[in-house]
Amino acid sequence: MDKPKALTAAAHKLARPIYSMLTKGEEYTDQGQAHYEERYRQRVLHNLNRHAQQLGMTLVPTAPAAQAAEKSLVRQSLTRIFLRGLARVRGFITLLLWT
Length: 99
Prior knowledge:
Elements: H1 3-24, H2 32-54, H3 64-98
């Protein structure tokens, strides 16, 4: 996107909530990061469904509990790897300081 289009897009992004506040007399309320992440997730799912249908396929959702458990296991594994690496670095620094 070139510079003039980017400026116009940014101006519109700011102008819409300001216009809404002025015409409705309401205060601006930030919807938060979770709202935007959910909108992004819905947009991605919609596009994936559309592409799957174009290819003659359907998407099958997995169980949310299984996804949460998988994320938890990944997080635990990464934490263990990080802590092991940190212990090695700490030992190496100690070795350097005492020699």
